[in-house]
Amino acid sequence: MQQIVDEIAEEMMNLEDKGEVAHYIPQLAKIDPNQFAISVALTNGEIYQAGCAAKLFSIQSISKVFTLTLALGKLGDSIWHRVGREPSGDPFNSIVQLEHEQGKPRNPFINAGAITIADLIMQGHQPKEVLAEIIQFMRYIADDDSIAIDEKVAKSELETGARNASLAYFMSSFGHFENPVEEVLGTYFHHCSIAMNSTQLAKAGLFLANNGVNPITGYTVVSAQRAKRINALMLTCGHYDGSGEFAFRVGLPGKSGVGGGILAVAPGNASIGVWSPGLDAIGNSKLGTKALELLAYKTGWSVFGK
Ligand code: GLN
Questions:
Q1: Which residue, 134, 152, 230, 263, has fewest beta-carbon neighbours within 10 Å?
Q2: Residue 285: CB within 6 Å of ligand 1?
């Protein structure tokens, strides 16, 4: 496995076209695209890494997997009254379907869906309390107390968040929101701004590869059925309008973020964190996707067969 990740890291650093960093969040626009990291956490507890696997990056929309997990833990299947489970086929920040579907987002991974999940997990609590809970959860599942929010990124998102504010106010016009829109947005921007490295990310996703139990700590995070369902949503919706292409090329449940990270799950085998800040036109990490495609090919881990 070490040889495989070393080969992948080397191959990625030699590629010319590394994609474009996310320009619409000023704090992310400053990041050097010539960076790559890969961490593979096996379900037997072994961890393999290559590239700049200790470097922190903004996990952005990957956080939506963890807020969904928290919402299911708090509220169970009742969340599905507020958010659907179908791929949207539209960009992550699209507003078009919301009018036809009366403010109910297609799935929890598009921005509108994740903003709805933020409203659900707040349950009348102050954003600070909810954020403390999210961070505590991240530290628990990754078994790492150093995980924190990058306040500079959160501020940068807030200042340039007109599109997300539009989505939130539009949804609230249907009378769905239980908390003040500004507070829900604050919670959303902050959880998107959690900073992690690829190894912490791989460890945080390990419960999804191991029937809900983190094999390193022994903690049961969710039931096996819930882990399976979260993986299904990652496979069908985790890359927005690029989800079909990701399934075709990589064949694993995965969740991307505009910070350039991707969490991928090889059920029964491993949880994988990759990072490279350059994105493709849809907003998914260009080299991250390529690296996962290679990894799935070399290991035979695709859920669709070898
Ligand atoms: N915080 C980002 C946004 O709301 C998350 C988007 C993403 O990672 N795809 O635009």
A1: 152
A2: no
